[in-house]
Specification:
By secondary structure, this protein is an alpha+beta fold. The chain is built from four helices and three strands; from the N terminus they run H-H-H-E-E-H-E. Helix content is 43%, strand content 14%. It has a three-stranded antiparallel sheet with strand order 2-1-3, with helices on one face. The radius of gyration is 14 Å and the shape is globular. It starts with a helix and ends with a strand.
Length: 100
């Protein structure tokens, strides 16, 4: 019973899950569809989305690799913390930005 292996694989990655549901026109929180690591690119995207934003690891769950960023001055340090936590918890570091 329950979802099959492919569904579990897709839903295990926030980026893959978002890509999967796009074709159904399901409303989603504004954000990006790729993992980024470049701070200047992140600042540009965050400014476009608008603060506050949520930095979120694309894998895992339970709140690990997530950081709320209220202002641009905190973005770089919060990205570094999210990357470090995601690596420790999930063995990876891609993350994405979402509006709050």
């Amino acid at each position: 019973m329950g979802p099959g292996p492919e569904a579990m694989r897709v839903m295990g990655s926030k980026l893959a899950a978002k890509e999967c549901v796009k074709k159904y026109n399901i409303p989603m929180v504004p954000g990006i569809d790729e993992a980024i690591e470049d701070i200047s690119k992140a600042k540009s995207i965050a400014t476009e989305i608008g603060y506050p934003i949520l930095i979120k690891a694309s894998a895992g769950g339970g709140g690990k690799g997530m950081r709320i960023v209220e202002k641009e001055a905190d973005l770089a340090s919060q990205m570094e913390r999210a990357i470090s936590e995601a690596k420790a918890a999930f063995g990876m570091d891609p993350y994405s930005l979402r509006s709050m």
